[in-house]
Amino acid sequence: MTGPIAEEKTSLDPATRPSPTSGAAGAPPTDEVQLPEGTRLLHIGPPKTGTTSLQSALYAARPALSRAGVHHAGRARNPAAAAQAVTGRTSMYLGGVVPPMSRWERLVKDVRRAEEPRVIISSEFFADATQEAIRRIVHDLDPDRIHIAVTVRPLASILTSQWSQYVADGMGAPFERWLEATLTPDDRRYSPTFWVRHRHDALVARWADVVGPERVSVVVVDAERGAVLRAFERLLGLPRDMLVADPDLANRSLTLPETEAVRAFNVQFKRAGLPKPLLARVMHFGATRAMKLAPPDPSWLAAELPAWSLPETRRIAREIVDNIAGSGVRVIGDLESLALVPEAPPGDTPTADVPGPPQIAAGMAMGVLLATGEARRDSDITVETRDRELERVPLFVLGTAIAIRARDAARRRVRSLRRLGRVS
Amino acid sequence: MPEGSLLVHIGPHKTGTTALQAALWRGRAALLEQGVRHIGQSRNPSNAVRAVTGQSSPYAVDTPPAMRYWHSLVKEANAAHEPRRVISSEFFAWAKPDVIRGIVDDLGGERVHIAVTLRSLGRVMPSMWQQNIQAGTVAEFDAWMRQMLERPPDKPPAPFWTLHRHDQLIARWADAVGTDRVTVIVADDSDHAFVLRVFEEMLGLRDGTLEMHRDLTNRSLTLPEAEAVRAFNVAFKAEQLDRALHARVMRFGAAQLMKEREPSPDEPRVEMPSWALDHVDRISRAMVDGIVASGVRIVGNVERLTDRPPSRSDDAPGVVPVPPSVAAAMTMGVLVATGATRGAASRIGGPQFAEPVELLRVPTYQVIGVVLIRTRRSIGARLVAIRRRVLPKRKAKD
Question: What angle do CA A364, A396, A113 make, to 5 degrees?
Answer without folding.
Answer: 125
